Amino acid sequence: MELSISSVTLDADCANVALNLKEAGFHFARVTPNTTLWNGQTENGCCILVSKSTNCFELWRTVQTMKGIGCAHLKVNGEFDGCIEKYLAKTKCRTETQLD
Length: 100
Hints:
This protein has 100 residues and is α+β, with helices and mostly antiparallel strands. The chain has 4 helices and 5 strands.
């Protein structure tokens, strides 16, 4: 599963993103920096690669706490490619038991 985020507030090397994931209890993730073109402007971006078994709601909840992140692109191989909010709405990823 791959989650792509970008914001003018992200650090260029994505170190803060990796640190936030670590502090939230994620043990395995590859976080790589990129530059995103959004509405004609460039932003620092990060691509977060995790296993498909990772709880996508918990991942998104952690990423949303970072300043300037309001949306993300999610790619689940052969299953989904688009806005994470649409994925959460269509799947059982976001359940009450996962919120606790």
